[in-house]
Amino acid sequence: MTDAPASILPSAVSGATASHWLRNHKAGIALALPAALVLIVLFIVPLAQLLSQSFKSDAGFSLHAYDRLLGDAYGRSLVWNSLRLGLVTTGITLAIGYPAAFGLALSKGALRSVFLASLFLPLAASVIAKAFAWTILLRSHGVINDVLIGLHLTDRPVRMIFTQTALIIGAANVFLPFMILPIYAVVAQIDARLTEAAATLGAPPVVAFLRVIVPLSLPGVIAGVALVFSLSVSAYVVPNLLMGENYPTLASTIAKAFLLARDPALGAAAGAVLMAIGLVVVVASSALARQSGSRRA
Amino acid sequence: MSLNGATPPHVALADVSKRYGASTILERINLRVDPGALVTLLGPSGCGKTTLLRLIAGLAIPDEGRVSIAGRDVTRTPPHRRNVGVVFQNYALFPHLSVRGNVGFGLSVRRLPRETIASKVARALDLVQLGHLIDRPVAALSGGQQQRVALARALAVEPDVLLFDEALSALDRNMRESMQVELRRLLKDIGTTAVFVTHDQDEALTMSDKIAVMSGGRIEQYADPISIYARPETLFTMRFVGLSTELRGAVTGRSDGQVRVETPVGALTAQGAQSLGSSVVVATRPEHIRIAAPDAAPGDAGLNCVEGRIRQISFHGSRTRVAVEVASCADFAVEIGGVGDLPAVGAAVRLEWPPEQSFAYRDGSPGP
Q: Which domain holds residue A76?
């Protein structure tokens, strides 16, 4: 989120200031160039194609694909399912990840290494492997049911796979590191003496936590929420393996439209809606982050 | 508590010990701070002074002994119920709050009415002359201003005792010296009791009513600044506060409070009561030694007197330091006011000083 694009415009008016600007930012431009090229070729161009595809019909420009997607109850349930997956996963990972990030920040030595490894190592495993592992655990004759039956806690398999509970457990598991790491990065930087200062000023531990630590941890929370929400709202593998056809989402609609139904306009429209949701979250969270940051500047 | 009508201490530590694992940080500390007194805990890093301050603040709990503040036993009272004010080394201001939010923090957690908070915040900021910065974010302030905000934040809650943990050490030299004077005047005006922790002897001498010199988890000497400087009770205090010239030797005679000591530069008389034959260190402050020409008429017969050669002269503005080599085995540090009327480097001189200004200490520690 830099102001660079805004400053190109006025300086382009006069050649002197433009070359001045270029000279001042030479290193920055050179460093950003590879990333910019990759973004343009692999993201901006396909995105433009996708958007133009979503507005295309036999009669030229039209909103027909959006009407087909959002015009009926089924279409709106796709949006709602995606949103709900994103919101619930974000809420649960925040509830588990926030205290975990503090645990990580307070841990020392070997214990911290173990904690960090247990966060990073799962990221190296494929999402498909993790989602599939959950199906092995949760299915009717899976590990958990075998144990429950073996212990005579139940005589029939408990239905877990293809339930929303399974979906939430799986999604929370897959996306948890993306909540913990940004919060941990911020919390680890908070000066421990701030808590002591609050205590000597008369704040009981809970008050000190709520009035000092929580506000200072907000930038990490905002980053974690933005990451987990944008990842989980568009998740495809996890709902697909753990819920199958029972939980159609925008992401699964994109796959179906392009791969099965050969209906690129519908798929493109679903992609555009998903992007719009993501965009709202990213813009809102960076605005929040800037606001909580500016009070400190 | 007071049997003889003396004022009861405002802060008292009785037989306080603190250990971390196998290492003893504080060993049976006894300290009494009078109401309104400014007391400094002075010592090198690792002497336990910061731990002692944290015990008063409640940020640490003693393993043994009792801590009381304003007549109340607070040994096991958590910090938020002690009513102390702490100014931390790097200020520990809340970065997400403005100056107003920082100074008002302690009042607002006490749930005082909004108007009361506003007026107390304004008054605390007036005391440190920062009223005009009330709406600034603290990160936008200079180091000196942050220091004042930290002080105002601690003052605003009207604490029973103010505690300063190396609070001036982050300021640059000029700022620190003016702050020492200003802070002492301010604290005396308010009449608050304060305990400082510092390793800076100048700060301790300037600001305190009493200084507790600490070493190895014990208090070496607890006295007013002049006594600490002029009559150090231990060699550690002598060495830590101010400069001195030290000479080892054996006691060869003693009479009413003074000892005669045979040293490599000759026999010297010093304050002390060690037994005959014991090894001692004789220490003398540089400003008490007078430089005289070797052929000048000797002063008072009772003066200590050695002859030597000027090895080095260093000018320090208001004073001049002279290193004098004596009997090619000892280097005397001498200090005179201003530039003085000095012979050149290499010149032979006689050094004279009164026995009352030399102190003999039992030689229990490794030599200088």
A: 63-294
